[in-house]
Queue: 4 jobs
Job 1
Amino acid sequence: QVQLVESGGGLVQAGGSLRLSCAASGRTFSTYDMAWFRQDPMKEREFVAGISWSGGRTFYADSVKGRFTISRDNAQKTVYLQMNSLKPEDTAVYFCTTGIGGSHDYWGQGTQVTVSS
């Protein structure tokens, strides 16, 4: 069993930065690929970024490529999402989850990111 808790969201002006964290519990964290998704109330949940279990491979949605960076620290059981050059359209609730494609066995509760213009 893995429990995920996101933090680091908040209100920021366009062009600003935020760093999200996803702290995991459970001894199997380091075996999971991990991903960040986001959801705006008016849209479906969408993939943002993913990272392999070792951290050796990363994947990004086209909309965030070059602005967001995903990383992980398996010793700290934490996944990060560094978000730079934020835009109002990045406003959403951000969730971390186990897995990149296919099934997502565990989800966090989400953290709100609001970007003002």
Job 2
Amino acid sequence: QVQLVESGGGLVQSGGSLRLSCAASGSGFFIYGMGWYRQAPGKERELVGSISRGGTTNYGDSVEGRFTISRDNAKNTVYLQMNSLVLEDTAVYYCNADIQALTIRREYWGQGTQVTVSS
């Protein structure tokens, strides 16, 4: 069974940086696109950024220029480098991946990691 496990969340001051990681574990799977979403209290889940297997990236408007998404295909891991953090970046961040395991291809989600930006 494939699982996504996130790490790297925490508390950071405004203007600071954090790096999130998300690793896929299991066996017999192939990962297509990967990405990060976030959900703040009382708001809908929104796209932070996505990356194709070949490395093509896409970012949400609110993080463009501040966040960088990358991946290591050999490690089945996606990263999110977050710089110049602001209060509005406070949210639970979820890893997402498009994975084929055996004959089934579907989206997988991580359990979420809390990022809190303080003033």
Job 3
Amino acid sequence: QVQLVESGGGLVQPGGSLRLSCAGSGSIFRFNAMGWFRQAPGKQRELVARLSIRGSTNYTDSVKGRFTLSRDNAKNTVWLQMNSLKPEDTAVYYCAAQRPGEYEYAYWGQGTQVTVSS
């Protein structure tokens, strides 16, 4: 059974930074891609950032230039560095894994709360 465990959320002031981590129970190279999603109260879940198996990254427009994906192959971990945080970044952030040949993300972490507030 695949397990994804997120950590690193918390309360931060506007303009601050957080780094989220997503640790997989096995090699992340089993997956076609790893994604970070977020869901704010009353809003739909959105894909924030995606890291493909080949290392290419994609970001939603609202976080471009502020969020950065990286991975640690040895630790089967993906990181999401979030800088210049804004109140509108407040949400529960989820890590997810996409299996080869599939569009939907099959595996999900439990989520970590990020709150940006003064």
Job 4
Amino acid sequence: QVQLVESGGGLVQAGDSLRLSCAASGRTFSYNDMGWFRQAPGKEREFVARINWSGGSTYYADSVKGRFTISRDNAKNTAYLQMNSLKPEDTAVYYCAARRSSLVEYNYWGQGTQVTVSL
């Protein structure tokens, strides 16, 4: 099992920045690909970004491309999501997820952290 704990959420104004962290513990050798998802009130959960083990491969949703950056520090078993130029439409609960590889579904999920962006 892999346990994921997100942190770093909060209330900010439009244009501000936040950095989310996702700390992994447990059988951390069993995951390779890590991702961030978000779910706004009344909406389905959507993909935000993902990163492979080495960090050499990243992928972003069009809505965050150029504003968000995903990274990871394997020595600390932690993934990050740097969010810049935040917009009110970025308001959501952000979830960290992990999986063995990009060939399977994400099967480990954190509890989520709230990000609220005000005008």
